Amino acid sequence: MEFSEIFQWSTLIPWILGIVFGIFVGATPGLTATMAVALIVPLSYYLPANAGLALIIGVSFTAIFAGDIPATYLRIPGTPASAAATLDGYQMARQGKGYRALCLDLWCSCLGGLIGVGLLMAVAPQLARLALKFSSFEYFWLALFGLSMSAVVSAGHTFHGLMAATFGMLLSTIGLDIVSGAQRFTYGQTELMDGVQFIPVMIGLFGLSEVMRHLWAPDSDTEGSSTADVAALSSRQKSSLFTSLWRQKRLIGQSSLLGTLIGALPGAGADIAAWGSYGLAQKTSQEPERFGKGSEEGVIAPTSANNAAVAGAWIPALVFGIPGDAVTAIVLGALMVYDIKPGPMVFEQSGGQVQAIFMIALITQCLLLPAGWIGIRTFDRLLKCPRRFILTAVVLFSVVGAYSLQSSLFDVGIMIGFGCLGFLLERCAIPLAPLILGLILGPMVEKNLRTGLIKTEGDWLPFINRPFCLILFCLLSALLIGPWVYRRLRKTPSGG
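Given the sequence above, the corresponding structure tokens read:
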């Protein structure tokens, strides 16, 4: 197909509508990017190939960014990939820099997406071939690495982060056993047969618990008594925005590269990419102690990575027909409808259409800037309402978001229960983000561990002696033991 078809109104109209829909869905807690793509894919079947793909790509990229808006202002991640924004982004908002945090977020999302798409175009076959070599042994260590990263980089004591991640993994065992199919820890509740859904848990932990915190100590936010103050203060922070972006160019490139690499690993996803880049940024920062307290680096790293990961997920999907994440798993069906057959021959059989996909993805990153800015300003104006209205809206959106997943009041009860639990955990200085990631990655850890042991008949050696496994094992060991060793060495007298 000709590139000129991309700029026809028949393609531009659904493309723009998809971008707007992605902003709305991403900024609404409980409505994930995967859900948005699943809803619009049936509509894309009635459109020409370029228009349908533009609609899908527009939704997926913009929804990932928009999830950071409520995460920054309300500490409610709009999507799972936005959970990292509840750390430094939210702290910046409490300091009156919410608008600045989201402007950094928007530009880094765009830049990360551009770098991710550029890498997708340049090295798709090579990275996909590397990802294809990963087996259950490597994925076990990858999931453990993502879990440990979230625990280590969380505010507070590392042990508390590991404890929260472990609790999240234990929650992930509820439901049907992945090998025998037997029920585990359901206690006769049929609603628990599919496990504990992470969306109601995420909304409860980050949303409802925040409302409880404000009700418990309504005057605790000494940084500002209303969101209107936040907006007024943050509007004066624009002048040095591009200076900050230029100063952090290495971090943007580093996080985007890591995000693309992780996104190219089937099943890894943007959430692991965000946490992995956040942890790497903290380890390589000159001011690691500022992370979790409103660090701009803590905003730039995860948002650069998660948008790059969206592009990276297309690498195995296009070249080998292996979906990199849930969104590309849905997109594969749409590609088949348009007679695009993913696989090693896709560039020869459908080269023109694949190039059109690349072009659409690149332009979408540029269109994200005006669309995202409108989304930020709209949300910013809504937050100028009195705090009691904002908290009421948070509760309303929390209930609607939890109920919309399966139209189940049971999920609303789960959300309320974890809201109370999140409030208590924070009172005990236990971070919440590792718990969420433990719930998401727990099945991946268990499945690949048990699959690997079944393959080897109980032999643990292949989990260590394979090259990628050894690399991940060493990285994980350095992550957990390195800080302790470093502190011990610093305490050792130089003469002794």
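The chain has one domain: 3-491. Try to locate this feature in the token string yourself.
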